[in-house]
Amino acid sequence: MQRSVLLVSLWLLMVLMSVSCLASDGPTETANITLGHSTVPLTGPWRFHIGDDDRWSSPDFDDSAWETVDFTPAPGAHDGDVGLPGYVTGWNQRGHAHYTGYAWYRMKVTVDGDLGSSLALAGPTLVDSTYQVYVNGKLLGGPGVFSGTSPTVFAVRPSVFPLPTSSPVGARTYLIAFRVWMDPLDGGQESGGIHVAPVIGDAKSIDALFQVQWLQTFKGYVADAIEPLAFVLLAIMATGLMLSRTGDSYRWLMAALILLALLRVNQVLFFWTPYLSLRGYDIAVSVLLRPLVLAAWTLAWRDWFRLNGSTWLWHAVSVLTLAYVVVALIGRPWFAPETTLGLKAAAGIVGEGIRVAFAALYLWVVGRGVMQSRKPSTYFAALAAILVGIGLFATELNALGIPGIWFPFGTGVARGQYAYAAFIALLFVLILMRSVGYARRK
């Protein structure tokens, strides 16, 4: 009996040792992993250090003085945008609040299993803001361009890195190091570094995981691809209203729809393709398109409600738009680094005030339009204006505590996407009603 108990105890001890991470007092802890045809998330412990040094990619570097981090997520955890699973908070809440710049993660992994199979590493699917990955001191790649004084950031998309085959005999050991750059544009309460653990496994299983990760990324932004197309089609319909040769003007409606399509499609270009950088996205969206979209929609609804006597509105919108562009430019972290932080903070406050002024003008136009005409179509138009306004003034609605994103079926859908979908259907009906009305007059 005692012999049986002893054998069972030894067997349990061997099992626990084969699946646990063996901590030591020396450099990077070694995670012992036994692989079949499977994948294992590398949750840690990882060695972590802020700063940058090329020596930190070397397997021989002693990182025993570094702090440790763990990427084990809470059950069911996902990011707050598209629903990427396995989410953990960044270094902003791990003792490095407000830090932007370089940081490194290191982990040593020993893999047992089918030594004849190829192994691969699936990169983390969410990182603030970009990264390079090194294995045994050799750079394998990454989404960012690290050639300048500060890296050029492109969106972190699902990626696969084949791992080298070191020896046909015995276990394979890899020192995996991530060099991370967090851009000042990526601030937030939970921001900083890696948010989803990389995954190691045999090449076929990693490829299957890669396809699942891309499917989640595709679902997260597919609405941002469909809605711009719908906006363009509505702009074409608005062109038909202009061809009716009436006294009504629809030029601003066409411009507003096209500008809104450009604003929304930037999401797709950034997160689906490797062509739009974070800086390019910020210039296009934050500095140019947002002010122009607010101006165009304010004037579009002025024309739709036939507020022909409100010529002062044009001047007010022009002044606010120019001020918005200038203030947004001054407030960008990449603009004029020598500019004092106080000036940038003041620009942010002024920018918020300009948006509130735009919201007041927008609501005045809608309210004035309803008061001027009590027809049922006017109320439908007012509802359409409110729906598109939900997307235009998302920041202000967030400040009121209204939830911004819901996760039906595990995929993030923004409040504005719901509103835009309803707006598209309603504006389609409104344009048809106007077209029928013009036809009856003739």
> In total, how many beta strands?
16
Outline: elongated
Mean pLDDT level: 88
Distance from first to last alpha carbon: 102 Å
Proportion of β residues? 15-25%
Per-chain topology:
Blueprint: H1 2-19, E1 21-22, E2 30-35, E3 39-41, E4 46-50, E5 67-69, E6 101-113, E7 119-122, E8 127-128, E9 130-135, E10 138-141, E11 160-162, E12 172-182, E13 193-194, E14 199-202, H2 203-242, H3 251-272, H4 278-304, H5 312-331, H6 341-372, H7 376-392, H8 394-399, E15 405-406, E16 413-414, H9 415-441
Helix pairs in contact: 2-3, 2-9, 3-4, 4-5, 4-6, 5-6, 6-7, 7-9
Explain this structure:
The structure is a single chain. By secondary structure, the protein is an alpha+beta fold. The protein folds into two domains: 20-197, Jelly Rolls, CATH 2.60.120.260; 213-441, Rhopdopsin 7-helix transmembrane proteins (Up-down Bundle). 47% of the residues lie in helices and 16% in strands. The strands form four sheets. Strands 1, 2, 4, 5, 6, 9, 10 and 12 form an eight-stranded mixed β-sheet that branches. A hairpin with a 2-residue loop joins β9 and β10. α2 runs antiparallel to α3 (251-272).
Give a quick set of tags describing it.
single chain, about 450 residues, alpha+beta, Jelly Rolls, Rhopdopsin 7-helix transmembrane proteins, 2 domains, eight-stranded mixed β-sheet, four-stranded antiparallel β-sheet, 9 helices, about 45% helix, disordered N terminus
